[in-house]
Amino acid sequence: MIAITDPRIEEYLMRLAPEEDPYVQEMEQLARERRFPIVDRLVGRLLYLLTRLRQPQLVVELGSGFGYSTWWFARAISITGKVVMTDHDQENIDYARRIFQETGLADRIEFRVGNALTIGRDYDNIDLLFIDVDKQDYRQAAEIMLPRLAKNALIIADNALWYGRVAEGNDDPETRGIAEFNRFMFARRDFFTTILPLRDGVLLSYKYG
Ligand SMILES: C[S@@+](CC[C@H](N)C(=O)[O-])C[C@H]1O[C@@H](n2cnc3c(N)ncnc32)[C@H](O)[C@@H]1O
Q: Is the ipTM of this complex over 0.90?
């Protein structure tokens, strides 16, 4: 496994970004207790920033867990916008619903339980697509969702460096899934794609026109 960022840099970045919101703290604590993979605070801040810049009316999230990444989108989106959160675990969605009701953000969110790759087909004109499902499904998720994107849409995909395994050329299904997805997105001439080596790598792709 290759360290994408030196741990000292990660610690430094985290020190720069303390979080006082009790709900963020609660969700981060829950993730630690359950060893549940969330995007983490620095990527969360990136989601927030990109949402503020792009000002989407519709965000579709494939693989929302218990709503940590959703929280950053929901905080940043305008009151007329909507975030669709998807997870196949009912318990995760119930937890998220409670958090968003308590924080007054529930009106901006559609809570969907089931296979994100099926649910995603219900939406068109998506301004911002976030991909964080099982890694072997990234390429298929892109193929299903690309025709559903709005003009100048933005795709954000987490784990684009998959703990460095893509660079090592590992041959397990998850690494292959991410590597194929990265190749697929970089090869598209109708998108402009890059990867930020932040935490586990974040792929960003802008749709021309
Ligand atoms: C990495 S976690 C998501 C974490 C979340 N995006 C965050 O950062 O807070 C992936 C989640 O997606 C769910 N998941 C994976 N593949 C899925 C699929 N095809 N449909 C629905 N949920 C899926 C898993 O159950 C898990 O809760």
A: yes
